[in-house]
Specification:
- With 249 residues, this protein is of the alpha/beta class.
- It has 2 domains: 2-69 and 147-248, P-loop containing nucleotide triphosphate hydrolases (Rossmann fold), CATH 3.40.50; 80-146.
- Helices cover 39% and strands 25% of the residues.
- The protein has 8 helices and 9 strands.
- It has helices spanning 43-51, 86-96, 101-114, 130-142, 160-177, 188-194, 222-225, 228-248, and strands at residues 2-12, 18-28, 32-36, 58-63, 71-75, 148-152, 180-185, 197-202, 207-213.
- The strands form 2 sheets. Strands 5-6-7-3-8-9 form a 6-stranded mixed beta sheet, with helices on both faces. Strands 2-1-4 form a 3-stranded antiparallel beta sheet, with helices on one face.
- The two termini are 36 Å apart.
- The structure holds adenosine-5'-triphosphate.
- Residues 13, 15, 17, 19, 37, 39-45, 206 line the site of adenosine-5'-triphosphate.
- Residues 13, 15, 17, 19, 37, 39-45, 206 line the site of adenosine-5'-triphosphate (ATP).
- This is ABC transporter ATP-binding protein.
- Keywords: ATP-binding, Nucleotide-binding, Transport.
């Protein structure tokens, strides 16, 4: 069943830039969708439309049950409050939702453990590594258990080993929670590792040029990352991306 259906969506900014045109897609509840494409193809714009941070200039977004669900966000910058401990950062969305501080912190501590940060509750963001700050950001996004998680190149600034670990842990969380995930990335390798469906986008105007299903089963782990199946899927997606870029050029 689709969580959201987009039909003929376009977005033209006030500057005249046509960031998206003719975008039609269905995002199934519980799916993991990657938006893959070169700079400027409208990935972030599509995420902003899903988030309700911008409105389409043409076409429609229809949410199942008619209302946009609660949404968790993870950006490339973890955007934590520097004056608050990691635990306070994770607890904040719960307190904003009306939970008592003690209950919010208990649940936040549980989520910190789930992202591998047990023992760092009292640490301030500046004392944590980039990867750990990103883990705090993921815990903060998921602590209210939103049905939809939007991620905009969350791991692009991290080193490769840290990025692999976060990919592994994100998949574990998704398998346990089954939120719907929409993940923006420039990386073919990351998109194939994470996603069940990859939407390849091309620029000028931003549009979806291919939709590829990645059928590899769970669990996807270190063994999957070095498998022939993974390499073959990466080749297919790379080719689709190269075709998209050639068409756009
Ligand atoms: N607020 C804005 N006002 C005007 N133009 C914008 C705005 N935001 C994005 N654009 C333009 O719309 C197009 C799509 O931008 P968008 O950021 O959605 O692409 P992207 O695929 O996410 O790129 P990147 O990978 O570089 O983040 C680009 O040409 C961009 O310059």
């Amino acid at each position: 069943m689709s969580l959201v259906a987009l039909r003929g969506v376009a977005k033209r900014y006030a500057t005249g830039t046509l960031a998206l045109e003719g975008v039609s897609l269905d995002i199934a509840r519980g799916d993991f969708v990657a938006l893959l494409g070169p700079s400027g193809c409208g990935k972030s714009t599509l995420l902003r439309l899903l988030a309700g941070l911008a409105d389409p200039t043409a076409g429609s977004l229809s949410w199942q049950g008619t209302a946009r669900p609660e949404i968790g966000f993870v950006f490339q910058e973890p955007t934590l409050m520097p004056w608050a401990t990691a635990l306070r950062n994770v607890a904040l969305p719960l307190e904003l939702a009306g939970l008592r501080r003690r209950d919010a912190e208990a649940r936040a501590a549980d989520w910190m453990a789930r992202v591998g940060l047990a023992g760092f509750e009292r640490s301030y963001p500046r004392a944590l590594s980039g990867g750990m700050r990103m883990r705090v950001s993921i815990a903060r996004a998921l602590v209210t258990r939103p049905p939809l998680l939007l991620m905009d190149e969350p791991f692009a600034a991290l080193d490769e080993i840290t990025r692999f670990r976060l990919n592994d842990d994100l998949l574990r969380l998704w398998e346990a929670e089954r939120f719907t995930a929409v993940f923006v990335t420039h990386s073919v390798f990351e998109s194939v590792f994470l996603a069940r469906r990859i939407l390849v986008m091309a620029p000028r105007p931003g549009r979806i040029v291919a939709a590829l299903d990645i059928t590899a089963p769970s669990p996807r782990d270190g063994a999957f990352r070095t498998s022939g199946e993974y390499a073959a899927q990466c080749r297919t997606v790379s080719q689709a991306l190269a075709d998209a870029m050639a068409e756009a050029a």
